[in-house]
Amino acid sequence: MSGILIVEDDEDIRDNLSAILVRKGWQVSLSANGVEALEQLRAHEPPRVILLDMRMPVMNGWEFLAAAKEELAGIPVIICSGDGNVDPQALAAAGFLRKPFELSHLFSLIQPYR
C-alpha cells in the first residue's frame, strides 16, 4: 500500500473520495473501520497519508489511533469529521477536514505527501 488510506464507514463517501483521488493520480486503499485499517497497516507497505473518519462502527477513529500507535509512526493522519468537538491538535493530526469539506481543502492538505 502506498498513497492514501481512506478510513471511512460511509460507503458513498469512501467510494466518491477514492474515485476523485484516483483521477488525481493517487493510489488509494480503503477501509470501512479502524479494524480493517489496522489490518492493512500491518500487512502492507505504509501509506503516505491517512484520511481518518472518527465516528465508525467496530473500531472508531480514537480507538484506531490508540491501537495503531506503533504502525502510525511517521504517517501523517488527516482527521475527517463532522464533529466540531474533535481537537486535531490533541490527536497530533496533520490536518483536519470538517465534513462536509471542500475538495480544494483536501487537496491542499494532501499535496505535501505526494
Short descriptors:
alpha/beta; 114 residues; 5 strands; 4 helices; 33% helix; five-stranded parallel sheet; single chain; Rossmann fold
Alpha plus pi helix count: 4
Q: Unreliable segments (pLDDT under 50, ≥5 consecutive)?
A: none
Could you give the distance between the termini?
A: 14 Å
Let me know the number of strands: 5
* Percent range of helical residues: 25-40%
- Please give the order of strands in the largest beta sheet: 2-1-3-4-5
Whole-number mean pLDDT: 91
Q: Please outline the major beta sheet.
A: 5 strands, parallel
CATH homologous superfamily grouping: Response regulator
Query: How many separate domains make up the residues?
Result: 1
Walk me through what this model shows.
By secondary structure, this protein is α/β, with parallel strands linked by helices. The protein has one domain: Response regulator (Rossmann fold), CATH 3.40.50.2300. The chain has four helices and five strands. The protein has helices spanning 11-23, 34-43, 61-67, 103-110; strands at 4-7, 28-31, 49-53, 77-81, 95-98. Strand 3, helix 3 (61-67) and strand 4 (77-81) form a beta-alpha-beta unit.
